[in-house]
Write a structure and sequence with these properties.
single chain; about 110 residues; alpha/beta; TIM Barrel
């Protein structure tokens, strides 16, 4: 079974990383579903969460979530050190969900 722990801040990322979940997803609640990507609004949150997860010295990987609506948002989160994204409304609310999924996937390469 794969485990994903969603956290709202760096303190929670650090706290839960020691339990070695497969993934920790950093998602500030105020940005979830907003269309305002955490990678643009609070890039420091991603870089600090990356450091917090690495400090656990285990196999946990960081995902970035909250407000992701474009391939640019995905690319930026990867550049900031996340291993991937966690997304829901960015796809569900899209007019052409297949196109946005493809855009997200291409941005991960």
């Amino acid at each position: 079974m794969t485990s994903v722990v969603c956290v709202k801040n760096v303190a929670e990322a650090k706290k839960y990383a020691r339990f070695n979940p497969d993934y920790i997803a950093i998602e500030p609640p105020e940005l979830i579903g907003s269309g305002k990507a955490v990678s643009k609004e609070r890039p420091d949150l991603i870089t600090k969460a990356v450091s917090a997860v690495k400090m656990a010295k285990n196999s946990t990987k960081l995902l970035c979530g909250a407000g992701i609506v474009s391939g640019e948002d995905v690319s930026k989160s990867i550049q900031l050190g996340s291993n991937g994204i966690l997304v829901a409304s960015g796809i569900v609310k899209a007019k052409n969900w297949m196109k946005i999924i493809e855009e997200f996937a291409k941005a991960m390469l």
